[in-house]
């Protein structure tokens, strides 16, 4: 299951090539909490994690993917259907078409050939947005 999940990280999103050539693809997902709130991300398919204020969490993925991969070919390990819990009680369910990788404080950086680093920062402003729009069970 884990290997399948890692391969899914490098899912190819399309193109003009008639034949796909696979290569080793790596990704580093860095989640940083600069807010004063505890943040918990619950994932259906990947590692769930908790980030205390001022801390970070790193998820490393690797597997086969398309040669000459670009950042938009990666699938975030934390996607719709997952939950973000703020301070143990405020829940924000990620909706279809919504991902924590789509907010302004997310960036992709090429580390080397077929290796990208994706950094996401839970800022105080974004946490307040989540709290304001929280849908609790």
Instruction: Report Rg.
Output: 16 Å
CA distance, first residue to last residue? 29 Å
What gross morphology would you assign?
elongated
Biggest sheet layout: 4 strands, mixed
Strand element count: 8
* Structural category: mainly beta
Tell me roughly what share of residues is in helical segments: 10-25%
Give the number of helices. 2
| Relative strand content | 35-45%
Adjacency order of strands in the biggest sheet:
4-1-8-7
What is the ordering of alpha helices and beta strands? Answer: HEEEEEEEEH
Low-confidence stretches: 1-15
Determine the mean pLDDT. 80
Describe this structure in words.
- The chain is mainly beta and 137 residues long.
- It is 12% helix and 39% strand.
- It is built from two helices and eight strands; from the N terminus they run αββββββββα.
- Strands 4-1-8-7 form a four-stranded mixed sheet. Strands 3-2-5-6 form a four-stranded antiparallel sheet, with helices on one face.
- Strand 2 and strand 3 form a beta hairpin.
- The longest helix is centred in the C-terminal third of the chain and has 9 residues.
- It is elongated and about 45 Å long.
- It starts with a helix and ends in a 5-residue tail after the last helix.
- The N terminus is likely disordered.
């Amino acid at each position: 299951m884990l290997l399948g999940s890692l391969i899914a990280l490098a899912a190819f999103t399309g193109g003009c090539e008639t034949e796909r050539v696979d290569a080793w693809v790596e990704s580093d997902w860095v989640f940083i909490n600069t807010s004063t709130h505890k943040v918990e991300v619950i994932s259906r398919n990947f590692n769930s994690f908790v980030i205390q204020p001022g801390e970070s969490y790193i998820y490393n993925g690797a597997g086969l993917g398309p040669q000459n991969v670009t950042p938009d070919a990666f699938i975030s390990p934390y996607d719709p259907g997952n939950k973000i819990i703020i301070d143990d009680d405020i829940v924000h369910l990620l909706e279809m078409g919504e991902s924590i990788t789509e907010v302004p404080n997310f960036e992709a950086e090429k580390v080397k050939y077929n290796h990208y680093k994706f950094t996401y920062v839970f800022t105080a402003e974004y946490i307040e947005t989540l709290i304001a729009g929280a849908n609790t069970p």
